């Protein structure tokens, strides 16, 4: 059977990992919880760019690379495609469909942090759901703003920000309660897609709140791309 290297760190990747075998490898960057109940081996840490990943593929006799990383992990995805191509093995990718604005949505699309902060200038109480990036900008909070930052990391609150350490999936009822309690006036989000964190968009729609949405980075074309975990797993079962 083909030995698989699964590049993960997402809920989708974890679901795929539960269908692997003891000879396969699930690779994590080391950010967040490391699962200890999987049937496959778990590797934590980087590879050293595409060349390091290529060496790992060749040394471990990997026959298939599966990229199930976050849609915003563009560098990892590029390294996966390049390393697999150089090693002469296939690279499959899970490309989760992006969310699409619905009737009543007020999305303000931005490409980087500078555009994001400019779009936030009129607001006072933003909820950031971008992961840990806002933590590096806590000393830049404008005098008229108080930030709420939801991410995996536990981090001390500051005089100008509250850090909400939480891991999805998030329920609609829970999001409604959070938005009502904290009275956010704008939501800041990546267009991650999937259902685990989508409830926040419905609550923003219900409350008439704008969403400052960070556009997805371009991702390289893999040998095969899948829009759902179920499709990828079905193909994997047929191929093995």
UniProtKB/TrEMBL annotation:
Pfam families: CbiJ. It comes from Paraburkholderia phenoliruptrix. Pathway: Cofactor biosynthesis; adenosylcobalamin biosynthesis. Its EC number is 1.3.1.106. NCBIfam families: PRK08057.1-2, PRK08057.1-3. One of its GO terms (molecular function) is oxidoreductase activity. Keywords: Cobalamin biosynthesis, Oxidoreductase. The keyword rRNA-binding does not apply. InterPro entries: Precorrin-6x_reduct. This is Cobalt-precorrin-6A reductase.
């Amino acid at each position: 059977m083909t030995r698989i290297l699964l590049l993960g760190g997402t809920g989708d990747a974890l679901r795929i990992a539960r269908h692997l075998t003891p000879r396969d490898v699930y690779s994590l960057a080391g950010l967040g919880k490391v699962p200890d109940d999987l049937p496959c081996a778990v590797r934590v840490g980087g590879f050293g760019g595409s060349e390091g990943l290529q060496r790992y593929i060749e040394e471990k006799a990997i026959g298939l690379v599966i990229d199930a990383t976050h849609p915003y992990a563009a560098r990892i995805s590029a390294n996966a495609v390049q390393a697999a191509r150089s090693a002469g093995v296939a690279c499959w990718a899970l490309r989760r469909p992006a969310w699409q604005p619905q009737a009543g949505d007020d999305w303000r699309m931005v490409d980087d942090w500078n555009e994001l902060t400019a779009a936030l200038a009129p607001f006072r109480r933003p909820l950031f759901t971008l992961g840990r990036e806002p933590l590096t900008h806590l000393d830049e909070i404008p005098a008229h703003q108080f930030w709420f930052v939801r991410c995996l990391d536990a981090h001390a609150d500051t005089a100008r920000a509250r850090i909400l350490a939480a891991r999805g999936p998030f329920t609609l009822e829970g999001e409604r309660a959070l938005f009502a309690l904290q009275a956010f006036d704008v939501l800041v989000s990546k267009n991650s897609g999937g259902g685990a964190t989508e409830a926040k968009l419905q609550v923003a729609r219900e409350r008439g709140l704008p969403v400052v949405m960070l556009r997805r980075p371009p991702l390289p074309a893999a040998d095969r791309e899948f829009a759902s975990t179920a499709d990828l797993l079905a193909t994997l079962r047929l191929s093995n």
